[in-house]
Every structure is written in C-alpha cells, then in structure tokens.
C-alpha cells in the first residue's frame, strides 16, 4: 500500500517539488496526516495550515508553491481538489484492482439474457428474460435485473440492487447497495373512500456516468418514463417520484424527495433533506439549500432557500403564531394605505 511520490506525478501530472523517491503510504486529511502520507490544500486561504500539518507531502495551488516547497515535498496543480479526486481513483486502481470477470455458479441467468464480454455476476444475482448486460459490467450479490432491462458497459450494480423490467441504466454507472430502480410510482385514483391503483406503464431511463447512493429509489413512470440524464449524482436515501426528469450533471444530497412529474434542470444542486413538490419546474443552474421545501417553479438560476430558522421552542411558537397573522395584517395594511391615499386625494390643493 505504498507508492513513490514521483509515480503519482507520472500518472496524474502536476509539478513536483521535492524528492520523487519519497514513499507515500496513504492519502490522509490535512489535520491528521503523518510523515509518510499525502494531503491537499485546496485554496490559498488555508495557508496557515502549512505550518501545522505533519503531512510528508502536499498537493497545493500555485499561490502556495513557495511556502509549501520551503516546508517539504509538494505537487503544484491549478486545482488541488480535482487533482485529489483523480488521485483517489488512481490510488484505488493501484491497490484494489478489479477481480477477473466471472459468473458465480449460484447466479440465476435466464436463457434469453444477453451478456457481453467481461461481465461479472455475483452469487444469488438474478438476470431476467431478454435482459442485456453490457461489456465489463459487474452485477453484485443478490442483485436483480428484470426482464428486458439494459445495463450499460462498465456499470457496477452493488449488492441487492434491483433494476426493474424494461428499465435502462447507461454506461459507467455506479449503483450502491439497496438501490431500487423501477418500483411502481405512487399513483392511485380516489373512489368512494378507497384508492384504486393506477398501473405504472412507463419505465426508468438512466444516462451515462450516473452514481446513485445506497437505498435510493427511483420510481417508474405512469405512462412516459422517469428520466435521469448523464452525469447525475444522487446521494443515499433519496426518493425520485414517477415521471420526474432530472437534467444532466445535477447533484442531490441525502434524503431529498422529488414528487411526481417534477422537472429539474441541468447543473442543479439540491441540499440534504430538501423537498421538491410535484409538477414543478426548476431551471438549469438552480441551487436549493438543505431542508428547503420548493413550493413553486423556479425560472431563473440562482441560490434559493426556504426554511424556518431553528430557535428555542417558546420563541419558535411565538414566531409561528405571528406568521399565522400575516395575511390578516397584510389586509389591514392595504386598507390603511387605501384610506391614507383617499385622505390625501381629498385634501390636496386643486
């Protein structure tokens, strides 16, 4: 579990300051890194930490090159955070290479399923009729790929992932344990005090390079498909309702809920625990703060927040009671303004 610092630069680029033969045994946080570990400083405003960290080498921006070189070895790059992200991928490939492709004897494959070259399937996984699994895909233990579903090349389904019938997952995707793609959408018609199920006839279409966190659920559409475009990143425990459309490279943090038929644009971010109500549209580049509730469509890009600040309970109850009076106070204010305007009109000189 060690590599010389020079091999990092050879693989990822950057400018090396210091000995190439310095052995790096681990990637570590800046505050706890030791003499044989590599850490990063993302921005010049964190320059004071150069003097306190014990890291054997640092990844730094050009603005910190001189100061970092004075304390020891460093790699200089324009975007240390991006460099570190790519470093983690390279480090993983170096130390945890993929196992050779294999179909476990305990897996269940329908005779009509189509598997491309290099596919791996774990124990107790089930591949349904006419399902197609792309080149190099890895299907984990107890995962289920339904009839007529498609899994793209180099996509990984971790343990217990379920991809429903006719659903599509693109290339290079990562679906973490417990993800459910293509469960029925929440559709019921009220009738005489009962709920009559609306059969969900659509599917789910997921683009390339999408990552979906553990136990996240994406419902199939009622008639048309639920769509997740390329590059979307979803955290754990997210609920995406039926017929939702999520634009490319949007990211959502844990416990977000998106109700049915909402449309979320490209390059949006939704903070943890936020809720987007159904049938709303968010433009490209909308950023929603954590725990917000989006109750109307948003047509312009920007940062939006909708939450009631936390307070001690007694103060919160007083503020909540005041909020309930706002509509009445508004009507009284309008009436007062109209009365003042009428008096001014009647008393103004001719």
Explained architecture:
The chain has three domains: 93 residues, MurE/MurF, N-terminal domain (Udp-n-acetylmuramoylalanyl-d-glutamate--2,6- Diaminopimelate Ligase, Chain: A, domain 1, 3-Layer(aba) Sandwich); 197 residues, UDP N-Acetylglucosamine Acyltransferase, domain 1 (3 Solenoid), CATH 2.160.10; 35 residues. The protein has five helices and 38 strands. It is flat and about 90 Å long. The chain starts with a strand and ends with a helix. The model has no long low-confidence stretch (mean pLDDT 96).
Write the layout of secondary structure elements.
Layout: E1 3-4, H1 5-12, E2 15-17, E3 23-24, E4 26-27, E5 37-40, E6 57-60, H2 65-71, E7 73-76, H3 80-95, E8 108-109, E9 114-115, E10 120-121, E11 126-127, E12 132-133, E13 138-139, E14 144-145, E15 150-151, E16 156-157, E17 162-163, E18 168-169, E19 174-175, E20 180-183, E21 188-191, E22 194-197, E23 204-206, E24 211-212, E25 217-219, E26 226-228, E27 233-234, E28 239-240, E29 245-246, E30 251-252, E31 257-258, E32 263-264, E33 269-270, E34 275-276, E35 281-282, E36 286-288, E37 293-294, E38 302-304, H4 313-324, H5 326-347
Parallel strand pairs: 4-5, 5-6, 6-7, 8-11, 9-12, 10-13, 11-14, 12-15, 13-16, 14-17, 15-18, 16-19, 17-20, 18-23, 19-24, 20-25, 23-26, 24-27, 25-28, 26-29, 27-30, 28-31, 29-32, 30-33, 31-34, 32-35, 33-36, 34-37, 36-38
Antiparallel strand pairs: 1-3, 2-7, 21-22
What level of helicity do the residues show? Answer: 10-25%
**Could you state the CATH homologous superfamily of the largest domain?**
Hexapeptide repeat proteins
Number of strands: 38
What's the story with the biggest beta sheet? 10 strands, parallel
What is the residue-mean pLDDT, rounded to a whole number? 96
Strand arrangement, largest sheet?
8-11-14-17-20-25-28-31-34-37
SS summary, helix count: 5
CATH topology of the largest domain: UDP N-Acetylglucosamine Acyltransferase, domain 1
Structural class, judged by helices and strands?
alpha/beta
For the CA atoms, what is the radius of gyration?
27 Å
Overall tally of structural domains? 3
Distance between the termini: 92 Å
Contiguous runs where pLDDT drops below 50 for at least 5 residues = none
CATH class of the largest domain: Mainly Beta
Percent strand equals 25-35%
Supply the CATH architecture of the largest domain: 3 Solenoid
Basic shape = flat
């Amino acid at each position: 579990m060690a590599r010389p610092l020079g091999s990092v630069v050879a693989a990822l680029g950057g400018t090396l300051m210091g000995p190439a033969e310095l052995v790096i045994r681990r990637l570590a946080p800046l505050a706890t890194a030791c003499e044989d570990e590599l850490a990063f400083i993302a921005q010049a405003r964190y320059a004071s930490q150069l003097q306190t960290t014990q890291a054997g080498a640092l990844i730094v921006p050009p603005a910190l090159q001189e100061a970092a070189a004075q304390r020891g070895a460093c790699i200089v790059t324009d975007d240390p955070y991006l460099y570190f992200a790519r470093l983690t991928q390279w480090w993983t490939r170096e130390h945890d290479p993929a196992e050779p492709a294999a179909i476990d004897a305990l897996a269940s494959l329908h005779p009509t399923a189509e598997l491309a070259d290099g596919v791996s399937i774990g124990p107790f996984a089930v591949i349904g009729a006419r399902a197609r699994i792309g080149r190099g895909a890895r299907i984990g233990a107890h995962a289920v790929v339904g009839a007529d579903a498609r899994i793209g090349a180099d996509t990984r389904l971790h343990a217990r992932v379920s991809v429903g019938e006719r659903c599509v997952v693109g290339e290079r995707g990562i679906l973490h344990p417990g993800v459910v793609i293509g469960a029925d959408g929440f559709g019921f018609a009220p009738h005489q005090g009962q709920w009559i199920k609306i059969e969900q006839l659509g599917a789910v279409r997921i683009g390339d390079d999408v990552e979906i966190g553990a136990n996240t659920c994406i419902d199939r559409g009622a008639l048309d498909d639920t769509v997740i475009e390329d590059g979307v990143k979803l955290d754990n425990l997210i609920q995406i309702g039926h017929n939702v459309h999520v634009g490319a490279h949007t990211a959502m943090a844990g416990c977000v809920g998106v109700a049915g038929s909402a449309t979320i644009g490209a390059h949006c971010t939704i903070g943890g625990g936020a809720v987007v109500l159904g049938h709303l549209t968010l433009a490209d580049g909308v950023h929603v703060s954590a725990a917000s509730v989006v109750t109307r469509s948003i047509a312009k890009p920007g940062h939006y927040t909708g939450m009631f600040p936390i307070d001690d309970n007694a103060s919160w109850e007083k503020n909540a009671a005041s909020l309930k009076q706002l509509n009445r106070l508004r009507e009284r204010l309008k009436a007062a303004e109209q009365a003042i305007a009428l008096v001014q009109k009647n008393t103004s000189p001719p």
